[in-house]
Amino acid sequence: MIVRILGEGQLDVADNHLETLNRLDDDLAKAVDSGDEPQFAAALAALLAKVREVGTVVPDDAITPSELILPSADASLPEVRALLTDEGLIPG
Amino acid sequence: MGMGSRLALIVKSKANKLMDRAEDPRETLDYSYEKQLELLTKVRRGVADVATSRKRIEIQMQQLQSSSDKLQAQAQQAVGQGRDDLAREALTRRATVNTQLADLQTQHANLQAEEEKLTQASQRLQAKVDAFRTRKETIKATYTAAEAQAKIGEAVSGISEEMGDVGMAVQRAEDKTQAMQARAGAVDELIASGALDDLSLPSGQRDDIQAELDRGAASTDVELELAKLKGALPAGEEQAALPSGNGDQAASAPEAAPAEAAQPTSEPGTPS
Known about the structure:
Order of helices and strands of chain B: HHHHHHH
Helix content of chain A: 40-55%
Number of helices of chain A: 3
Order of helices and strands of chain A: EEHHEEH
Largest interface: A-B, 33 and 38 residues
Strand order of the largest sheet of chain A: 3-2-1-4
Number of strands of chain A: 4
Radius of gyration of chain A: 13 Å
Largest sheet of chain A: 4 strands, mixed
Structural class of chain B: mainly alpha
Helix content of chain B: over 70%
Number of helices of chain B: 7
Number of strands of chain B: 0
Distance between the termini of chain B: 93 Å
Largest sheet of chain B: none
Oligomer: heterodimer
Structural class of chain A: alpha+beta
Strand content of chain A: 5-15%
Shape of chain B: rod-shaped
Distance between the termini of chain A: 27 Å
């Protein structure tokens, strides 16, 4: 599975980690939805740490869509919310 | 659904919309490629802008550092002259300068990180754009419009994602650079106001602490010279020696002066 961390690039994560990543990803979504900033920061850090730990970097010249797109490590809750709006991630 | 999957879906649906615009999906390739080149230009400009901003801060840091060093030296000089009031003033200003300096150092580190990120993003995008161009030509040459659909979908979706990512990085860097320029302008104003006692000002401009110290040092020097002159004269010959009196000669010969020569006793460092 290809995962993109915004601002860092893409990583290839083996399928056996999928369950863990999905769980962490759900935690992050809950934190964003509830607007809990400390919970959001913790969930984001945990998810990114896991992806970096188990993923291998995708070569620069590979062009492939990601199955997960994750906010950058220093993203704030409002920034992530903005990404979810229509103009957020890709304008136009 | 998780956050990562939501974001991925948003990107995919955007890419699909892009594809739907063209009657022949292969046109999407050219359109996307054009946008990629535009973005590449924008990223490179972004890197240059951040670098300019970083250099400006570096210059200000140098200015403030030399101000801080100068104020430290002035404080020492003032203490040497017994002018605690001046020393206190110099140290107070130095504290202000150092606060500004510490702030600039933080900003500088931020900008440097931003520059690094943007440079990497630019390199990644360049590699992807090159790969996209190759793939675009292959797709156009090998597949019919109908066959090409899936291939194009993947390529466009993949590159759109990268472009979205890089586009955000550029925007972020632009925002930070603008904020930084506003701060840098404020620091320049502060320096210009004299509150930070800037060393880089032309020498004609006033530095009140230095002026006071110079006055103190000058009057001490005058008294010293005077003492030397007086010391060089044999007792009773003051009147005769005056017309040909030479400071250098007098200064080189104080040891030869008789002990009973008139000397001001109030001056420190007077040869005895």
